[in-house]
Write a structure and sequence with these properties.
Number of strands: 0
Number of domains: 1
Helix content: 55-70%
CATH topology: Serine Threonine Protein Phosphatase 5, Tetratricopeptide repeat
Structural class: mainly alpha
CATH class: Mainly Alpha
Strand content: under 5%
Order of helices and strands: HHHHHHHHHH
Number of helices: 10
Mean pLDDT: 80
Radius of gyration: 17 Å
Largest sheet: none
CATH architecture: Alpha Horseshoe
Shape: elongated
Low-confidence stretches: 13-24, 30-43, 201-208
Distance between the termini: 21 Å
Length: 208
């Protein structure tokens, strides 16, 4: 599992998989925000500290505007990026009650659950995201990550990553999925993962 984690660490760290609003959210083997330096060193840096003054100001805005989903999403993003996932989840939950059809917020909430060491709850939340948008590529990429690292279900991860290549073949998530699949084939040849859709012949090794 250590070797596999190393393969995926280089492939998936830095890929945007959270919402398209605010700072990007990422999921990786270790429950912490990642950076380019982490990819080179192999160790994740600590998350940046929360801007408490800004957070306090935004909380006041949220309290004064009970129907303000955007401020709650921003607060969720801030707490997530600071590694305070329980508080991030609270704000995402509030935002989702106001905006129940927002697949991005739903997926960010699922990622927060994953980093709270609750992969089953994360997967259940991702199912809700797919009920909103069955082709939501960020959700599909996250499902594969949680299956691989939260559930050690490598075959299930491969299946969902291959689905991204069908529903969103030109997306950044598809590029990440292709590399992850190549890494998985290299680390686990016994799984007999079929070639990627549109790919023939023997799969190549992990992309640089």
């Amino acid at each position: 599992m250590v070797g596999l984690a190393g393969v995926f660490f280089g492939v998936l760290v830095g890929w945007i998989i959270g919402s398209q609003q605010g700072s990007p959210r990422v999921a990786a083997p270790a429950p912490a925000a990642q950076s380019a330096s982490a990819q080179n060193s192999g160790a994740p840096p600590p998350p940046p500290p929360l801007d408490e003054a800004r957070a306090s100001s935004m909380k006041t805005v949220a309290q004064q505007n009970p129907n303000d989903a955007d401020t709650r999403i921003q607060l969720g993003n801030m707490y997530f990026d600071a590694g305070r996932y329980q508080e991030a989840a609270t704000w995402y939950e509030q935002a989702l009650r106001l905006r129940p059809k927002d697949a991005n917020v739903s997926t960010d909430l699922g990622i927060a659950y994953y980093y709270m060491n609750d992969p089953d709850r994360a997967l259940a939340q991702f199912d809700k995201s797919l009920a909103i948008d069955p082709k939501h590529a960020k959700t599909l990429l996250n499902i594969g990550i949680v299956r691989a690292f939260g559930k050690q279900d490598m075959k299930g991860a491969a299946e969902v990553w291959q689905r991204i290549l069908v529903v969103a073949p030109g997306s950044e998530e598809a590029q990440a999925a292709r590399q992850a699949l190549d890494g998985l084939r290299s680390a686990h040849p016994d799984l007999n993962i079929p070639p990627n859709p549109g790919q023939s012949g023997t799969p190549k090794g992990p992309a640089e």
